[in-house]
Fold these 4 entries.
Entry 1:
Amino acid sequence: MQSELLNFKNTAKNRLENDEVAAAADAASKKAKKGQLAAAGGADEEEVEWFTDTSKEAAELRQAAEIEEMKRSAAAAKGVEAILAAAAAKEKAGTERESPVVSLKAFLASPVERSEAEILSELKILQLARSLDEVQKVHLLVQALFDTSKPKTLPAQVKKHASILKHVRHTPCR
């Protein structure tokens, strides 16, 4: 009986040692994985913390900002759609195919604020694609930039686009 008791103690001791060795190996494996994640630029999920102001006021401000951005994008998209719809109506009537003026107007009416360099680049692209001479290029630019349906606003429009017009001012006239 004593031998059985001694055998049981040894078995229990061996199991306990095996469990300790397995736990140490598991801890070492986890530590190695963390090191690999850190070396790869990743992070352990337990260490990642996200901070967001969840107050009602902050949520309302974020919502108002998102709605305002959507309204601006929608308004600009409607402007482009209106230009393209008018051009499609003219094309359907057989009076005009999509002209470079329509293309440039749509480019200018897009929701993205266009820089002077971008406008001049687009003008150059249209000039090359449509084989326009310098006079036709200036005519295209004037038609696209200015709304002549309201003559009283024309001086303000010229002032607004003066820097672009300066780049094409040395164009020879016929």
Note: Residues 56-167 form one domain.
Entry 2:
Amino acid sequence: MVAQSGAAVFPSANYETEGFSLGTTNETTVYTVPVGFEGGVFITEIIAADQDGTANSLTLKVTIDGTAYIFGKAEAFAANVPYERHFTSLVLNEGDTIKLTAASITVDGYVGFIQNARES
């Protein structure tokens, strides 16, 4: 499939987001692939910002098949600049999770994903 100028490569009907608001500095699950989905979920991005407009940092942990992987530890982002993590090939399956830990409790954002899944 060749994308035309201004055209999306993925149909927008398959693209979804899951919002989150971190109210703690403890590790928090921000997305879990629902049980019963087969075929995987393609994670496209994680976007976050500190709502106080101050600098902050995030640690990103992804658990795949029960094994935890740290993708970024205390990655800093400046005041009034969003944290952005884009993925091209992160595929999660049912029960896999994305967790974030913030340095302060005023971080809001979303996980963007494409469901390549069908409910069983």
Note: The beta strands are 15-22, 28-32, 37-38, 41-50, 56-64, 67-77, 83-92, 97-102, 107-115, 118-119.
Entry 3:
Amino acid sequence: MNDRLLPGVSPRPASSSRWLVGDAIRYTKRFESGRRGARLDERIVKSDKASCRWALREEVLRPRFSASDEVTRGAQATRAFLVESGFAEAEIRTTPVSLNDNWVMGSNRPANRFTARGGLVVETDKVDAIMKSVERTGELLKQGVVVENSFARYYWSPT
């Protein structure tokens, strides 16, 4: 028998190590057998509903309402962009504008005192139109609209 052992390994009887290995195998097989019985067929389906949120942001130093006015102007340009993309007015809703004073907390004073955020949400069954409009978000940037993000969600409902 070899007299040297690996550091940190204590000698154990063969029966206890066999028991540990056997227990680990039984534990693993218990989960594996549960998965085998629950196999489902998977298929790729096309979404039938979509929702997309265009978040707009504007930062200014002074006065505070100019940031809110800029977000409102951006929301109007975004609404026109979405109507041009083929969405009905009933599918588009505006989120409220929030105005934050960045100088309120702490002694750190960023260059832009006020940050205004707002946006629009489109909920529709025109999934392809949502995908195309998200891809065309760069056109809004060319118009001077600051788009923080355009987050799209796709849904499928079994009918």
Note: The chain has four helices and four strands.
Entry 4:
Amino acid sequence: MAYGAPVARFHTRGWGVTAWTIDEQHAQVNRWLRRLGELAGFAPELDAEGLCAIGHRSGLECAIEVFGPHGEVVVRVPLMPWPPARPEAVASQCLQAHFLGIDTVGASFAIDPAGAELVLWKSAPLDSLDAERFPAWLDELFEAALRWRDALWQLDASEPACEAASACELSGLPARRAGHVVA
């Protein structure tokens, strides 16, 4: 693309621009949740505020929320209480892992002030998901959260002298230096 070329065409993809009513948003996500529930043997559903808590086979749990005029789906997975024993080491590793979102499948680390927890969260426009993509999107986030929960707990429990071994190395995730994967 040449400099100065119009970029308006990037705003016409179709998703993220549809105005949904709250009832339509909830109904759509509830259909996806019911489908998930049928596969797993339970019946999750958004409450009146657009929130649903579900568990994963890994033992992790998540909160799914729907809000906004264009139907944004937000999922957050608690990883550990905040502050941990070594908050500086954990925060540093989270910031490094978050670089470009590659090691977090595009999700972000955050501290949930209401729950005093470190969470991994991700959002997507409702229009970008469908009945097949929604469970895959959730599973991808759960898998990343599981890797990071284990790595961050291990880092937090390690001795300060062991900080040279990053959480990436402890978890088996690739370490990154200057934007390149280190083998």
Note: The domain at 16-175 is CATH 3.30.1460.10 (Yope Regulator; Chain: A,).
